[in-house]
Amino acid sequence: MESDRAEMSALATTLDDLTTRLTATADRLHGSPRDDVAEGLYEVERSLRTASRKLERVLRSMR
């Protein structure tokens, strides 16, 4: 069980890093001719943040 928790914790960190990178890309595109892409990326960001919160809840339940 502890190895599962460690793996889930590593995945949570990776998910947070991915979200940060995706947001940075969306921020660069926001207000540019590719604002449509930025808006799509912001939608993905919201989904990733939701997934991150759910994963954190799972991790807390594994203690």
The dominant shape is elongated
Instruction: Determine the fraction of residues in helical runs and give it as a percent range.
Output: over 70%
Major sheet size, sense and barrel closure: none
Q: How far is it from the N-terminal to the C-terminal residue, by CA?
A: 9 Å
Give the number of helices.
Answer: 2
Which regions have little confidence, pLDDT < 50, spanning 5+ residues?
Answer: none
- Percentage of β-strand residues: under 5%
Structural class: mainly alpha
Structure explained in plain terms:
This protein is mainly α. 87% of the residues lie in helices and 0% in strands. α1 (2-29) packs antiparallel against α2 (35-61).
What is the fold's blueprint, element by element?
Blueprint: H1 2-29, H2 35-61
TL;DR of this structure?
The chain has helices at residues 2-29, 35-61. It is an all-alpha fold and 63 residues long. The chain has one domain (2-61).
Provide the descriptors you would attach to this structure in a database record.
single chain; 63 residues; mainly alpha; 87% helix; elongated
